[in-house]
Amino acid sequence: MRHFITIAETTPADLRHMLDVARRLKQEHRASGHNKPILEGKTLAMIFEKPSLRTRVSFTIAMNHLGGSAMMLRQEEVGIDTREPVRDVARVLSGMVDGIMARTFSHDRVVDLARWSEVPVINGLTDLGHPCQAMADLMTIEEHFGSLGGRTIAFIGDGNNVARSLAVACGKFDMRFILASPSAYRIPEADIDRMMSQVPDMDFVTMDDPMEAAREADVIYTDTWVSMGQEDEKQQRLADFSAYQVNAHLLAAAKPQAIVLHCLPAYRGREISDDVIEGPRSMVFPQSRNRLHFQKGLVAVLLAGV
Question: Tell me: the pLDDT tens digits for 63-112?
């Protein structure tokens, strides 16, 4: 592996290896209170066009735990394609740091960074996908159930960047992915065709009825209905998704062992009810903590060749 841009472009063997390294480093830190400094002297540059809590903290602490350091660079400071072109930013940074993580609006911007960079580039979120989140989700599911193969995720809500990455991740690990969404908010057919061409074995289903999706699921997943950059659509989206809340009524239709995930931030009382996110079947906060552990495994693989 050189970069981590999409799950579709990453082999199942490499994805499996990252999860295994993440699990091992998590166990190592829990057992001893520290990790071996395998990234001593290494620096990760983190470019942020969008606000962040989990991405910023998890990558920073991951680098610290492994003996390295992380530096935050805001878009107004870097000025990609405003102060200077992306090719110059990539070549300047890769001559000084050991890796670049970018959280951007445009997916093409991360692709261009990787094209011109001489060091690994990590997609920390784009409009197309959120691969780090999806892999932390799989880590959480595997920890809870003991396996991934044969499990079903029902994603209730918007066919957004998280849904795209999760769907492809399911295809890589022999899992089924159901998207329950109003028809206007599903992943476009052209994108599904592209995803299927990249992962031919992907078991991807779309439907209107969230209750039907919940009945088949081992994991019920939801995300905000209004993502950054969609504020002008807020009232329309709230109306269109009003029947798609993950609440006690929907959870009652699910398998008794089904768990609930949410990538956060959560708007309680909208896409998920307070009693569900705080309930015994919620794995939302272990899921959020696994962002740190997966990120640790990822930088160990990319920057240290573990």
Answer: 999 999 999 999 888 989 889 999 999 999 999 999 999 999 999 999 99
What length is written for the chain?
Answer: 306
Is the Cβ–Cβ distance between 139 and 169 less than 8 Å?
Answer: no
Smallest Cα–Cα separation from 111: which of 74, 86, 139?
86
Non-local (6+) Cβ contacts of 259 within 8 A are 141, 144, 218, 219, 220, 281, 282, 283
Q: What are phi and psi of 81, to 5 degrees?
A: 65, 10
φ and ψ of 191, to 5 deg: -70, -40
At 62 the three-state DSSP class reads helix
Look at residues 206, 154, 205, 151 and name the one whose alpha carbon lies nearest to residue 173. Answer: 151
CA distance 179 to 177: 7
Residue 220 CA, chain-centre distance (Å), reads 16
Distance CA 228, CA 198 (A): 28
Retrieve residue 96's tokens: 């000084």
Domain boundaries, the chain: 12-130+290-304, 131-287
User: Which residues does 250 contact at the CB level (< 8 Å), separation at least 6?
Assistant: 156, 210, 211, 214, 220
pLDDT in tens, 204-260: 999 999 999 999 999 999 999 998 778 888 999 999 999 999 999 999 999 999 999
Give SS3 for 156.
strand
**What is the CATH architecture assignment of 12-130+290-304?**
3-Layer(aba) Sandwich (3.40)
Q: Cα separation of 306 and 298, whole Å? A: 9
Residues taking part in catalysis: 103, 130, 133, 223, 263, 291
**CATH class of the domain defined by 131-287:** alpha beta
